TrEMBL record:
Signal peptide: none annotated. Gene3D superfamilies: alpha/beta hydrolase (3.40.50.1820), Prolyl oligopeptidase, N-terminal domain (2.130.10.120). It comes from Rhipidura dahli. SUPFAM superfamilies: alpha/beta-Hydrolases, Peptidase/esterase 'gauge' domain. GO terms for biological process: proteolysis. GO terms for cellular component: cytoskeleton; cytosol; Golgi apparatus. Residues 63-392 form the Peptidase S9A N-terminal domain. Residues 455-630 form the Peptidase S9 prolyl oligopeptidase catalytic domain. Serine peptidase whose precise substrate specificity remains unclear. Does not cleave peptides after a arginine or lysine residue. Regulates trans-Golgi network morphology and sorting by regulating the membrane binding of the AP-1 complex. May play a role in the regulation of synaptic vesicle exocytosis. One of its GO terms (molecular function) is serine-type endopeptidase activity. Belongs to the peptidase S9A family. This is Prolyl endopeptidase. Its EC number is 3.4.21.-. The lineage of its organism: Eukaryota, Metazoa, Chordata, Craniata, Vertebrata. It is an enzyme of class 3 (hydrolase).
Length: 668
């Protein structure tokens, strides 16, 4: 503040040393506590691990890995190796092109694969469990594939030509520079684009017909795209449309026309998301427009197709004569097929059990079939195909995989405090009787406009088989019902997400799905804000809470501008440094700030020692304060058999905030 004397350097250094010492002591104390309590769970851990391995072998391994087809060749990845096979080979013969172990990257997993247009090079990104940054390996293909180049700290990359690779570099969770590198004759690397605004994150994409490579610079309020003509990859990128506040857009190309998914015009239901996991290409764009390549400014954009209200665009794929939109409406998934030849739109509803889409990577632009997978938390990925020629959906039987028949899916609506209806998806075993006696696991996220993760997990299927009920609460702050659903649950509306969660759990209990003493709440990352807030305000609703790398100290974290994500996160949580009203509001719901002596549920937290996104210090202090409050409450009550919750923190030396390999997640 003005007139305040600046602290001396010596005092600052003393404060840092004291803080580091406190952190180390807290960490050591929690590690000792974990070593004391974990042996009690060994028998249960062994049983669960064996069951999960059995389910993994039965479902996930049999579902087959995604394949990339280039003419007669098919590329696929299995067990840390990349293989090349012939499309018409029924014998299962395949050549190994790349092996993680052979190159000494035994602790890494393959994140991304890109094959050059003439198949002479292959670029692969490898990611370690312990780092957010990936390493890009470029292989020269042929009879004996060899490593051509290794590029550290890479986020995204695409081939602009047979021997020209564009890539972005990542530093402190930010991507702002784009480089071009070549591999034949005059080998060189040069910077082609540098983003100056710290709020923007840059990634690369290739249009489906490979005519343009797009440089996409996105903030949380606008976006901008630059085109690299793949016929002339050494020319400077050309701007499509300068960034305009509130306007987001994404580019595809067909026959000298740019096809633009955008929020330009009304209504706008879009959110460019830099998640607390990674950048998503999944967006909420409601208009498909087009413009000539030569005059691409928004004044020349013409409407091709507009989505219905409250419909969310999950994914989009362009083909030579058609495009497919994967959509979500009222929790149900369907696809719209737009024909550029007949100028017609066909809508197809997908199976009611489906909760997640996944497009197969890089189908050929001229193909007559689009392949994708559908799944749910308890339904392993199932392959489907849409035939443009037949205009129908075909279910693909890859191998003999047992079919899930005993799981019932229910969709409910809970009325929140302000009368808003909040969707819930419930799964339970059809054969379960007396559901009010069954254990219930409730899931919540509600941040960044991101949908609750409902992809298949072996542990969810195991719980269903053992009689559990699973509930997914699609509260405000998430993206399930578009941009307005997110806006209604962020910044000064964050408490609405808490009210939604409470309403969901209460409705589940009222309808006979379990009861408070058999209910557990699960959340990860930013989902820890709402879970922790519920734990403080309505602890009697649940018996246990399980958190993974949770964000539980919102106020202190948002006051520290030196942390890599604080500035851009202000659009989600607000700016407590400059806005006193915002500071008080965050303090009113922040899990760490509102711990008090009361009867808490049991809590199990997994955290990572080197987490770059959620500081470990905040979690350590949260656990210490929570345990102290629970013990203080218990000491006040001298009744026999008084409830003292288990509050356990498992700090993992390895692993990071992002998605991990199967082996690592199994150990967790």
């Amino acid at each position: 503040q003005e007139g305040t004397k600046a602290p001396s350097k010596r005092k600052q250094n003393t404060s840092i040393v004291t803080s580091d010492l406190l952190h180390k002591n807290l960490l050591k104390s929690e590690q000792e506590n974990w070593n004391d309590v974990s042996p009690a769970y060994r028998a249960m851990t062994k049983r669960i691990k064996e069951k999960l391995e059995e389910l993994h072998n039965m479902y996930t391994l049999n579902s087959g890995s995604p394949r990339m087809r280039f003419g007669e060749n098919v590329y696929f990845e299995e067990n840390g190796c990349i293989f090349l096979a012939k499309a018409d080979d029924d014998e299962g013969n395949a050549d190994i092109l790349f092996s993680i172990e052979d190159l000494g990257f035994s602790d890494a997993f393959i994140q991304r694969i890109r094959i050059s247009p003439d198949q002479s090079y292959m670029a692969i990104s490898l990611k370690s469990e312990n780092s957010e940054e990936a390493t890009c390996i470029i292989m020269k293909l042929g009879k004996f594939p060899v490593v051509e180049k290794v590029i550290p700290s890479v986020f995204s990359f695409e081939w602009a030509a047979n021997d020209v690779l564009y890539y972005t570099t990542q530093k402190n969770l930010k991507c702002q520079n784009v480089f071009m590198t070549t591999f034949t004759y005059q080998k060189h690397t040069k910077l082609v684009y540098a983003e100056q605004d710290a709020r923007f994150f840059v990634d690369l994409y290739c249009t489906k017909d490979r005519r343009f490579l797009t440089i996409n610079s996105n903030s949380k309020t606008t976006s901008e795209v630059w085109l690299v003509d793949c016929r002339h990859p050494f020319e400077s990128p050309a701007l499509v449309q300068a960034r305009t506040p509130g306007v987001f857009y994404h580019i595809e190309h067909r026959k000298e026309q740019l096809y633009i998914l955008t929020t330009y015009g009304e209504p706008a239901e879009y959110k460019a998301i830099l998640t607390d996991h990674y950048i998503h290409r999944i967006r909420y764009l409601l208009q498909l427009m087009k413009a000539p390549v030569a005059s691409s400014g928004k004044e020349n954009w013409q409407l091709v197709y507009a989505l219905e209200k409250k419909t969310k665009l999950v994914d989009f794929e362009m083909f030579s004569d058609d495009c497919i939109m994967f959509l979500k409406n009222a929790g149900h998934l369907y696809l719209n097929v737009i024909s550029f030849v007949s100028h017609s739109v066909q809508s197809i509803q997908l199976p009611l059990w489906a909760c997640e889409f996944e497009l197969e990577s890089h189908p050929e632009h001229t193909t007559s079939t689009c392949y994708f997978q559908l799944s749910s938390p308890v339904h392993p990925p199932k392959r489907f195909a849409y035939s443009f020629k037949e205009n129908n959906l075909i279910e693909q039987a890859v191998q003999e995989v047992p079919i899930i028949t005993n799981c019932h899916t229910t969709r409910l609506l809970a009325k929140s405090k302000d009368e808003t209806l909040v969707p819930i998806t419930v799964f339970h075993n059809k054969n379960s009787k007396e559901l009010h006696r069954r254990p219930l696991l409730v899931h919540v996220y509600g941040s960044y406009g991101i949908d609750l993760n409902m992809s298949f997990k072996e542990e969810k299927l195991m719980l269903i088989e053992e009689g559990w009920i699973l509930a997914y609460c699609h509260v405000r702050g998430g993206g399930e019902q578009g941009l307005s659903w997110h806006r209604d649950g962020c910044q000064h509306n964050k408490l609405k997400g808490l009210h939604d969660l409470r309403a969901c759990i209460m409705l589940l209990h009222e309808l006979g799905f379990s009861q408070p003493k058999h209910t557990a709440l699960a959340a990860a990352s930013a989902g820890g804000v709402l879970a922790g807030a519920l734990c403080n305000t309505y602890p009697a609703l649940i018996r246990a809470m399980v958190l993974q790398a949770p964000f539980v100290d919102v106020l202190n974290t948002m006051m520290k501008t030196h942390l890599p994500l604080t500035i851009e996160e202000q659009e989600e949580w607000g700016n407590p440094l400059e806005d006193e009203k915002c500071r008080k509001y965050i303090k009113s719901y922040c899990p760490y700030q509102n711990i008090k002596p009361q009867c808490y549920p049991s809590v199990f937290i997994t955290a990572y020692e080197n987490d770059e996104r959620v500081p470990l210090t905040g979690i350590l202090q949260y656990v210490q304060k929570l345990r102290k409050a629970a013990l203080e409450h218990a000491s006040r009550k001298s009744k026999r058999g008084n409830w003292i919750p288990n509050i356990i923190l498992d700090v993992q030396a390895n692993g990071s905030h992002c998605d991990s390999s199967w082996e690592h997640s199994l150990n967790e």
